[in-house]
Each structure stands twice: as structure tokens, then as C-alpha cells.
Amino acid sequence: MKCERCGERAAEIQYTEYRDGAKHKLEICSECARELGFHVREKTPPSGPAPSPTVASVGNVTVSLSTATELTDNRLAEVRCPGCGLSIEELRDASLLGCPQCYSTFAKELTPLFRRIHGATRHRGRIPGGECVRPEDSTEEDDA
Amino acid sequence: MTLAELCEGLAAWLDGSGPRSDLVLSSRVRLARNVANTPFPNRANGVQLGRAFHGVAAASADVPSLASATTWNLEDLATADRPLLVERHLVSPNLLEGTGERGVIVADGERQAVMINEEDHVRIQCVASGFQLAEVLSEAVALDRGLEERIEFAASRRHGYLTACPTNAGTGLRASVWIHLPGLALVGETKRIHRSVAEMGMAVRGWFGEGTSALGDFYQLSNQQTLGRTEERAVEELGAVAERVLGYELEAREKLASSDRRAKLEDRIFRSEGILRCARLLTVSQVMACTSDLRLGRALGLVQVSDRGLNRLALFSQPAHLAKRMGCPQDGESSRWERARWVRAEMDSIGFRPRVDEEPGQGSTERGR
Predict the structure, then answer these.
(1) What is the mean pLDDT of residues A86-107?
(2) Percentage of residues in chain B having pLDDT higher than 90
(3) Which of A118, A137, A144 shows the shortest C-beta gap to B225?
(4) pLDDT per position as a tens digit, B186-200
(5) Shortest CA distance to B277 belongs to which of B332, B349, B216?
(6) Do residues B95 and B83 make contact, with C-beta atoms less than 8 angstroms apart?
(7) Rounded to an integer, what distance in angstroms lies between the CA atom of residue B142 and that of residue A64?
(8) Helices and strands of chain A, counted as H and E runs
(9) Is B83:B208 a contact under the CB 8 Å cutoff?
(10) Domain locations in chain B as residue ranges
């Protein structure tokens, strides 16, 4: 199937977007996914049906939590948050994290989502104690 | 304070005293927080929810600005009374749908509120009349600091405050302004403005927040991005977008004032006053639409009317407030009848009168010809 966005390259990723209350499902290519702000690995997704992406609402726009290339079947089956037991499938259904630890458990899924929703992946602003975090203060390793 | 006492009064932020309250009903900042090492409400069990509820309530008792606050646990309120808190914008409709111990702490004439165990354990809210986003941000931050000294909130340097929904992570801040856009509605520009606001990274919502419709031409503009922007920057950006929209609204009002639709518009405004004063059956949306017309009439210099009075009509016409006053739930025609009866009785208190120098239907109508 051809990519429904560019109409040229082969579709590899299922992309769901909600705009103005309507659901739009698109099969798109990796290149278009990158243009839309997703992190796409070069690896080809496993054969079989692609898992549907997790979604989260931002105002009247809803975006995918992850793409087929990132959610492999193994990861879907195995990953559960040690803090609250939330699985990726449950996260996909509810679009809500279950506990503070989910932020590190699902970091792989959350990073592209944050980029898409917020245009950023790291915090700037207050943290407990009245401190302000500047971008250079936060690193990938210091998540709770 | 009892719920009945709360519902007899008007919240401070509805008194029409704030800057530019002819265009901006209110400014609000909310901060989403969660108790550290505890599942978020959607994964917490009854015991964990209870511990979070009572922990936050106990901590708030030691925060100076919440010293005279009242705490309502929804579990202790009659089901019919719970929507009163939604109508007063102290809790979200979602809180009513939830289970377990949940509720709200209310202080300072409803200027400050702390909602407990909705999507997040804590939602701090500060709201004030008119356009004063920076001021409500300062108040919310002060309240947050007060709670933070007594509760450990879940946070990391990388993701800031950790919230149940990734759309709130980082600052956990949602700033909003409620703006009155009757001019844009009349010239048919509302949809275009919605699109342009969305392109500027902000959301437009209805009367009761996300997914609800606009009532009385009031729209809520709010920021969407919470990660990677400081609280101050988010509030400044929202303020700038709101300023642009208010500019468009003022242009629309000027256009209306000078157009050949002026006579029709003036007729509409005075008809709305007539409906409020004489109608025997009224719905909430009719009250809101008519009061919106009177606000516009004042903005165009056609009538005098008190903001506080109009806000009273809008709030006390809501279904749960009406039922509370009547002492029993109202529905259908009896509800519309009672609402109209109450509105008629209140009309003398809204300070409505045509502008002295312009007799309706004469001077101003001539301009429209």
C-alpha cells in the first residue's frame, strides 16, 4: 500500500489522528512519520498486523503515543511498570500513566509523544523546593 | 461553611471588578500535582485514594492562605448537591464521575481551590476576575509552595511534575482566560478564530472545559504545552494570544457599531432584556444568550448594566443552583418556569437602563438607516 500522505513511498506505519472530533486513520511511510515529528527506527517492523498506536488527547487534537516501528509484539507483551503494573496495552486504552515510575518504564514510548505534543522532551520550570530547571540541568539519566 | 451557604453567594472572581472585565470574565491558573510514591488516582485503590485525600486535607490546614478553607468530600455530599461544585467551577465534571474519596478545598471567596483525586491527586486552582494572568500565577505558585513544604510531590528534573496524562507533564500548568466574543460570533468569525488560536498552540474550550460547548459567547482560551516551557513563559504566550483575539473582537464590535446591522443589533439587545424581564419559560442557554446580548449592548454604549448582576443571573440559573434554591430537583418545564420566575425577580438588581443620551429606537436607530 502507498503512503496516504505523500502517495509515493510504501506505507509502513499506522497513524491515527483526531481532529475536530473526527478520527482519521492513515497508513504512512517512515519519511512522512519523521516529518510529523515521530522518532522512527530504521528497523523494519515485525511481520503480521501492526499494533494500533496508543493515543493521547491534547485539546481537540489527539496524537499517537507510539508507532508500529517502536511497539514490537514482544515489548507489548512483556513491559509492565514495576510501580503499578500498567501494561503498554492498558496505557494505549486509557492514555493515562499509572504512577510516577511509569515515566521511566515507558520512556521509549513517551519521548516521541512529548516531542509531538509539547515540541520538547525535557522540563523547564519549577521543581519541588522552588528550584528552576534549565535545559542544561536535566539529563536523560535523572528521571524519577 | 456549608454548601448551602456557599451557594447563596457569588464567587469573588465573578464580581466584575478585575481589569478589562468588559472582555475577560476571568483568568485562571491550575497546577497538576501528584503525591510521590503513590499510584495516580486511575491506578490507586480505595485505601491509597483515602490516604492521598486526607494527607492533602491535613497539609492544607497548615497552609496560611488555606487557614479558613472548607473541605468537601464528595462522598459526604448528597448526589443531587455535587453538581453545584461543577456549576461554580470548583471541580470538573470528571470528579463527579470518579469513585473513592475525592473532593475539593475551597478558600478566599472561591479564589483558591484544591481539587483532590481527580485525574491527578492534586489540582491547585487560582482564579480572579478580569485579565490578570500573572497575578493568578503568583498566587498558584505560592499555594503550591505552601503545600509542597508539607507533601512530597512526584517530580523529576527531566520531566518536571509527573502527571497521569502526558499532556500535563512538566509544569502541570494550565492557564486559561474566559473571554466574551459576541462580536466575532455575530460577524461569523468564531470558527476562523478557533483555527487561528489552535495554530498558535492554544486550545479553545466551552463553558465547562474540554469537550463542552460555548454558552453566552464565552470561550476559554488555554495553553496546551506544559513540557519545555517555564510557567512564566506559558502564561505570557497565552496572554499574547488572548490579546490578539481580544483585538479581533474589538474590531468586530466596531464593525457592528458602524454597520447597517446596527438597528437590528439594537433591537436584538432590547428584545433580550424583554425576554429576561417577561419570559415565563427559560433554559440556561437562553439566559446565557440574553445576558451575552446585554453585555454586548453595554460594550457598544447602548445600555448600562452591571457585570456582577449579569454574572449572578448566569450562575444562579444553572440547574443545580435552581434546584437547591427550590429545595427539590427540578426538571423539564417546571425547571424552566422556576428559572424564568427567578430571573424576572432579579432583573431590577442588574442595573439595566438604556443610555440616557440615546432613547432606544430613535437616535441610535437613525444611525443604522
Answers:
(1) 93
(2) 74
(3) A118
(4) 988 888 888 889 888
(5) B349
(6) no
(7) 36
(8) 5, 6
(9) no
(10) 3-253, 262-368
Dig out the grid coordinates for A68 from the structure: 508500529
The residue behind cell 434546584 is: B323
Closest CA to B52 of B93, B88, B14, B105: B105
Question: Does B37 touch chain A if contact means CB atoms closer than 8 Å?
Answer: yes
CB-closest option in B39, B145, B166 to A130: B145
CB atoms within 10 A of CB A78: 10
Locate all alpha helices (DSSP H) within chain A, ordered by sequence: 30-35, 73-78, 88-94, 102-105, 107-118
Contact map slice: A 87-116 vs B, CB within 8 A? 94-100, 103, 110, 113-114
Per-residue confidence (pLDDT) for residue B210, from 0 to 100:
55
Helices marked H in B200-303 — which ranges?
A: 231-258, 262-278, 284-299
Q: Is pLDDT at A139 greater than 60 in this prediction?
A: no
In chain A, % helix, strand, coil (3-state, to 5) comes to 30, 20, 50
Can you list the positions of beta strands (E) in chain B?
Answer: 24-33, 70-73, 103-107, 112-116, 122-129, 155-156, 160-161, 173-180, 202-205, 218-223, 303-304, 353-354
| pLDDT bracket for residue B262 (50, 70, 90) | confident
pLDDT in the model for residue A17: 60
Residue carrying the nine cell digits 449572578: B312
**End-to-end Cα, chain B, rounded Å:** 55
CATH code for residues B3-253: 3.30.590.10
pTM for this model (two decimals)? 0.81
- The one-letter amino acid at B71: T
**ipTM value for the complex:** 0.86
